[in-house]
Amino acid sequence: MTTYTTTQNLIIDDLSSAAALAEALKWWSIMAGGVVNDTVTDAISSNVLAHPKYVAAAGGVDAHFLFSFAETPVEVAGAYSTKTAMDADLVPAASTLVNCWDPDPSKRGRYSKTGGTGTGSWTLVSSSPADKAWTDYNHPQRLLELLICSFVYTTSPLAYMGSQQGWVGPSDGNWMGARVTLDIEFQQAKLGPYSKVGLHVQGNVPSRAAALSALYTESPSEKFFLPNFIQKTDLISDQLDFGHDSWGVENKVPVVRSSSRQNVVINMTGDDDDFHCFGDTGRDPTGRLISYGEAPVSEVLSNLQGNMYVLAHHPAPVDGDAFWTKSSSESVAQFDRFRGDIKLFGVKVEVPA
Fold first, then answer.
1. Most buried of 62, 97, 112, 332 (most Cβ within 10 A)?
2. Dist CA 148 CA 12 (whole Å)
3. Within a domain: residue 211?
4. Is residue 86 classed exposed, middle or buried when 0-12, 13-18 and 19+ CB atoms within 10 A define those classes?
């Protein structure tokens, strides 16, 4: 029997409100219909960091982070990670509609601009800014929706990782044999028949990154090699009642009204049979900061510098010359995408002693 040492035991209910709001900033979704950089006018993009709502304990329900994905999204002009950032941007015209993903429940919601460009203020029109998850086009042969995201804490993070490091693993970075437990619940959750929700892991392989930097000397000069995987043996959607051992086969049900709160366990075995790699050797690395190539999962887990996401996976094969091409035909069908609420009560990480 394996003996484990706990490196993280985040229990949302144990946090004070202030601590919970700070912790919420380390976890996010990526939503469609928004912009990055907390502005409507600059850096128009199809994705935005959407921080979870902190729901305080009430009515016999423990405190948790709430990630909501709308059944019928409302089109907005942009989105903000905090109300402070939104209030500071008065450039949008009157009646501009935006989402505000502030983790403080009293500030979170959908807002409308009152007053013309450069004047006025923002008025709350709905306390629910729920939207649909953004489709990750980096892997068009396996479309992904990013539901719960965070980086892995390391003392020397990758240059572009920022401060949102929610996962706390072993001090030496070796996640081989680690066990991740999510205290989690689905409410009114819907998935397409072959869509799966699982834990994604992505990390840099320094030796391969160095080889890329030596071979491709154009800008950017420093490159990263980040194969990424989904743990397909311990699927989250299977453990929350959508199926059983269902990778590659149809789910048992299309809707889970309430999974009840469960401890979902995902094993970071280092066994390639337990993981599906999204990388591909056919993608040209020229001019890229990041190459999503193929490698054994052990090369990533043995010194994990990267991220782990809870994501929805949609097999969408694209053949021939269109393999790496973004097009409307490669988007996730409305019927297939994830809809509903995810309640996250806690995160536990254990490593072999």
1. 332
2. 15
3. yes
4. buried
Question: Which of 120-129, 191-200, 207-216 comes out lowest in average pLDDT?
Answer: 207-216
Let me know if 251 is exposed, middle or buried by CB neighbors in 10 A (0-12, 13-18, 19+): buried
Task: Render pLDDT for 306-337 as a digit per residue (tens, 0 to 9).
Answer: 999 999 999 866 555 555 555 555 678 888 99
Asked, for residue 8, whether it belongs to a domain, the answer is no
Whether 247 and 198 share a structural domain? yes
| Cα dihedral across residues 282, 286, 290, 296: positive or negative | positive
At residue 44, the pLDDT reads: 47
Give the total number of structural domains in the chain: 2
Is the per-residue pLDDT at 302 higher than 50?
yes
Higher pLDDT, 347 or 319: 347
7-22: string of b/e by CB count within 10 Å (b at 16+)?
Answer: bbebebeebeeeebbe
Q: What pLDDT does residue 298 have?
A: 97
Q: Which two tokens stand for residue 154?
A: 């390391």
Beta carbons of 230 and 307 less than 8 angstroms apart: no
Q: How far apart are CA 101 and CA 124, in angstroms?
A: 12
**Burial level of 302, CB count in 10 A (0-12/13-18/19+)?**
middle
pLDDT digits over 69-86, tens only? 999 988 888 888 889 989
Mention every residue, 6+ apart, whose C-beta is less than 8 A from residue 239: 262, 264, 265
Last residue of a domain, one of 78, 105, 126: 126
